């Protein structure tokens, strides 16, 4: 803990941890609400192709990548709470603009602002490190990943409900006609409201964990970014993990952003129906990471599980565009319920395997980073590998969007599966390196 955090009573530290987790949840709730409407909203504008959808997603990741270290550094100078309040206030503005947008450039402007403010995750992680002792820090940082995942579970479901025509009509009738209430603007305003709730919680209930006066000495003693990079990359096996993080994030980010256009074009699903599928995926992902992964890792180890997770992910991503063919293997149960068609059952079978594979792979790759990096470069190692993932999430969506638009709906998924193939080989190479540290629990966050 920092010196300033030690002055906080134990009860205040516990309350601060719970409140910052609530702030992260509210922030990701707003992000999740937007996800199911994003492709449909973009397509409603002239020129809103799949490539533009990919660029829109990339703009968010690029700004998040660029501003995360800026917000983190600012929180060292000004304190954690002011930066969280600033970033959440920016998110309120971004999602409000998103809902009022009447041109593509406004969508881009709002998404870029949201991405810049979305870098507040690094500040939340720093807050957690401030208020927890080293022996409890890994578990506490894991709670950040859990809050992230739970927000992403509920967000698409709320987005689905708010995009129903009946919901839009009821809200429009109840409110004065000051702003247009549509199936796109209503979820956007709900996301802004979620961030606004985060602002209120942070302003009135979150205790500051770091005194600004205590930061000058820390900044002076901090090693340069270049020296941290050299020390972290020198760890045996970390170079392979950097490549693995990049490939997985590149392939999976493209799959994520093209999934909704795929089910809209092939199955005719609306934003609400797509959001329900995302909620299903999110629930399975949290169950995998929160229930299964600990038991499986203790029995099989992270290397074997990473290879297995890669195999599951390759198979499910590669089969996704052929889900109707897979559905031919299932009986048509529409007599029991109209929606239980063979096509849907085939899609659900693939979507059951996909989050399990991604959840296993994301956690075990993170565990391997922890094992391969020494205690003095743990933070740098995680920062570098996550930076590789952020870079991939900036490049991946526009490339996959172009493939979808120019080649065919199947191409982003097939290319993603091919890109994932080397990951298993890279992880197997790690078997020749002895880990620097003993296996330890790590942050169960998704590769997003």
Description:
With 448 residues, the chain is mainly alpha-helical. It has 2 domains: 1-208, Growth Hormone, Chain: A (Up-down Bundle), CATH 1.20.1250.20; 224-435, Growth Hormone, Chain: A, CATH 1.20.1250.20. Helix content is 78%, strand content 0%. It contains 19 helices and no strands. It has helices spanning 3-6, 10-34, 38-43, 50-78, 80-100, 104-118, 121-131, 134-162, 165-174, 185-205, 215-221, 225-233, 238-267, 271-300, 302-319, 323-327, 342-372, 378-406, 411-429. The chain is globular, with a radius of gyration of 22 Å. The protein starts with a helix and ends in a 19-residue tail after the last helix.
CATH architectural category of the largest domain: Up-down Bundle
CATH level 3 topology of the largest domain: Growth Hormone, Chain: A
Let me know the average pLDDT.
78
CATH class of the largest domain reads: Mainly Alpha
Largest sheet: none
- Helix count? 19
Q: Which structural category do the helix and sheet elements fall into? A: mainly alpha
What distance lies between the first and last C-alpha atoms, to the nearest angstrom? Answer: 29 Å
The count of domains is 2
The CATH homologous superfamily of the largest domain corresponds to MFS general substrate transporter like domains
| Rg over C-alpha atoms, rounded to the nearest angstrom | 22 Å
What's the β-strand tally? 0
């Amino acid at each position: 803990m920092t010196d300033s955090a030690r002055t906080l009573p134990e009860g205040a530290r516990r309350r601060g941890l719970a409140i910052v987790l609530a702030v992260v949840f509210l922030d990701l709730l707003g992000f999740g609400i937007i996800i199911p409407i994003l492709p449909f909203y973009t397509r409603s504008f002239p020129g809103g192709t799949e490539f533009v959808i990919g660029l829109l997603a990339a703009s968010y990741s690029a700004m998040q990548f660029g501003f995360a270290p800026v917000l983190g550094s600012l929180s060292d100078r000004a304190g954690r709470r002011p930066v969280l309040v600033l970033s959440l206030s920016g998110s309120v503005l971004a999602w409000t603009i998103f809902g009022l947008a009447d041109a593509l450039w406004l969508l881009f402007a709002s998404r870029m602002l949201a991405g810049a403010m979305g870098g507040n995750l690094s500040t939340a992680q720093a807050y957690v490190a401030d208020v927890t002792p080293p022996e409890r820090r890994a578990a506490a940082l894991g709670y950040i990943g859990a809050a992230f995942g739970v927000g992403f579970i509920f967000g698409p479901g709320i987005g689905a409900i708010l995009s129903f025509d009946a919901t839009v009509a009821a809200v429009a009738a109840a409110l004065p006609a000051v702003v247009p209430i549509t199936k796109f603007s209503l979820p956007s305003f709900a996301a802004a409201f979620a961030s606004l709730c985060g602002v209120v919680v942070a302003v009135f209930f979150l205790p500051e964990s770091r005194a600004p006066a205590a930061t000058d000495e820390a900044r002076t003693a901090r090693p340069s970014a270049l020296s941290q990079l050299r020390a972290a990359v020198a760890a045996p096996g970390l170079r392979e993990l950097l490549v693995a993080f990049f490939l997985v994030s590149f392939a999976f980010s493209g799959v994520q952003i093209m999934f909704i256009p795929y089910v809209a074009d092939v199955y005719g699903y609306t934003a609400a129906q797509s959001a329900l599928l995302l909620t299903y995926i999110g629930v399975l992902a949290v169950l995998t990471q929160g229930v299964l992964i600990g038991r499986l890792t203790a029995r099989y180890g992270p290397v074997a599980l990473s290879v297995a997770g890669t195999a599951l992910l390759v198979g499910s991503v590669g089969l996704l565009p052929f889900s109707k063919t897979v559905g031919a293997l299932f009986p048509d149960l529409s007599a029991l319920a109209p929606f239980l068609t063979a096509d849907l059952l085939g899609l659900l079978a693939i979507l059951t395997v996909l989050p399990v594979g991604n959840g296993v792979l994301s956690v075990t790759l993170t565990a391997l980073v922890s094992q391969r990096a020494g205690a003095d470069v743990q933070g740098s190692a995680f920062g570098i590998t996550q930076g590789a993932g952020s870079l991939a999430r900036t490049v991946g969506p526009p490339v996959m969007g172009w493939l979808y638009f120019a080649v065919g709906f199947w191409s982003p998924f097939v290319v993603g599966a091919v890109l994932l193939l080397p990951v298993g080989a890279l992880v197997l190479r790690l078997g020749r390196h002895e880990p620097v540290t003993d296996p330890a629990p790590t942050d169960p966050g998704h590769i997003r």
